[in-house]
């Protein structure tokens, strides 16, 4: 009787790119709901318009490259990029801003290098940084969250996207920006003077970060990625904030809890840093990758020119990922570590 000869590795269940991407999309739902609650339907319009553009640009790139549309569109990678960029953009962004960001993400950051699996940089973060550098005014104009101002409705969100000149919203600085610009008030007084601050961080931001944390933990439970990069990212960011926290003076950079629940911290830790294509591969490499990304986020937030820094930190670490992998390769099973060569005299 002929026996079936199967070599390792042995997989107990099919884990296709499509299924992984679908679970990532599902994990973003709690964070998206929290953002919609506090900032209004502009978040939803951002995501919907970005998704349509992503599919259009993906189809265009595949057509120009002579690839089959149905096979590549079904992997949902373009939709993941659209959701990540749509979440990162300020609500009520104009249609052309989202279009430029999606074109940069899909055409330049992804297909210019050969498509999914070949891109060295995270496409969503490339699109975000291109917009932030090119259009700083639009990228730093955030609608006031619920509790500070009135949240616009769905019709207002559509008007803001497609007829920006007719939309007049109530904008407010982000908590990270308010803290960065502060040079006179103690943090206790700053919290009382600025309505954008909540209990631990900013109104809306703290709950959005908790929601993205819940989605990230679900992905960990589903074993979509390992804990090494996100835990190292959060641990080093919290450690840096604790080391340089002076108790709340006017020069303070903020407490560890403030940094963990502000800006794109949890979103970056579980949905950006964990990108399997652009991050380090080895276990030790993921620890180093996440730790250095967390360090860069704190350095740029406190001493850099931008209040939030997840996108810049991730792109810098994308560039360094091959170098990290080279020096953190695991020992081959059954072999000892190679002895250092002695220089011949």
TrEMBL record:
Transmembrane regions listed in the UniProt entry: 32-57, 69-89, 125-142, 227-245, 257-274, 286-303, 309-327
InterPro entries: NqrB/RnfD, RnfD_bac
Topology within the bilayer: Multi-pass membrane protein
Main location: membrane
EC main group: translocase
UniProt EC number: 7.-.-.-
Modified positions (FMN phosphoryl threonine) in chain numbering: 174
Cellular component, GO, one term: plasma membrane
Pfam family, one: NQR2_RnfD_RnfE
Keyword ATP-binding annotated: no
One of the GO biological process terms: transmembrane transport
Intracellular or extracellular location(s): Cell inner membrane
Self-association state and partner proteins as the record states: The complex is composed of six subunits: RnfA, RnfB, RnfC, RnfD, RnfE and RnfG.
Function noted in UniProt: Part of a membrane-bound complex that couples electron transfer with translocation of ions across the membrane.
Family: Belongs to the NqrB/RnfD family.
HAMAP family: RsxD_RnfD
Protein name: Ion-translocating oxidoreductase complex subunit D
Source species: Parahaliea aestuarii
């Amino acid at each position: 009787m002929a026996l079936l000869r199967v070599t390792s590795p042995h997989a107990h269940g099919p884990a296709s790119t499509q299924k992984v991407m679908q679970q990532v999309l599902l994990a973003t739902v709690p964070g998206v709901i929290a953002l919609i609650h506090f900032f209004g339907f502009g978040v939803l319009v951002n995501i919907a318009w970005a998704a349509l553009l992503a599919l259009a640009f993906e189809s265009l790139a595949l057509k120009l490259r002579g690839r089959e549309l149905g096979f590549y569109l079904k992997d949902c990678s373009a939709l993941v990029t659209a959701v990540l960029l749509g979440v990162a953009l300020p609500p009520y962004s104009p249609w052309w801003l989202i279009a430029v960001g999606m074109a940069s993400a899909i055409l330049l950051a992804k297909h210019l290098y050969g498509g999914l699996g070949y891109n060295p940089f995270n496409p969503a973060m490339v699109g975000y940084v291109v917009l932030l550098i090119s259009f700083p005014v639009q990228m730093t104009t955030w609608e006031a969250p619920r509790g500070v101002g009135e949240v616009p409705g769905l019709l207002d969100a559509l008007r803001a996207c497609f007829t920006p000149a007719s939309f007049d919203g109530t904008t407010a600085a982000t908590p990270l920006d308010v803290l960065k610009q502060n040079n006179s008030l103690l943090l206790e007084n700053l919290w009382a003077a600025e309505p954008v601050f909540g209990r631990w961080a900013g109104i809306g931001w703290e709950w959005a970060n908790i929601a993205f944390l819940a989605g990230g933990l679900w992905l960990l439970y589903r074993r979509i990625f390992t804990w090494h990069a996100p835990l190292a990212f959060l641990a080093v960011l919290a450690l840096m904030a604790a080391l340089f926290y002076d108790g709340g003076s006017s020069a303070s950079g903020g407490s560890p809890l403030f940094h963990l629940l502000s800006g794109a911290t949890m979103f970056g830790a579980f949905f950006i840093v964990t990108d399997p294509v652009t991050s380090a591969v080895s276990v030790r490499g993921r620890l180093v990758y996440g730790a250095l990304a967390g360090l860069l986020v704190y350095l740029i937030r406190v001493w850099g020119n931008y209040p939030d820094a997840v996108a810049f930190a991730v792109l810098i670490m994308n560039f360094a990922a091959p170098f990290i992998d080279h020096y953190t390769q695991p020992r081959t099973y059954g072999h000892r570590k190679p002895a250092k060569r002695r220089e011949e005299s």
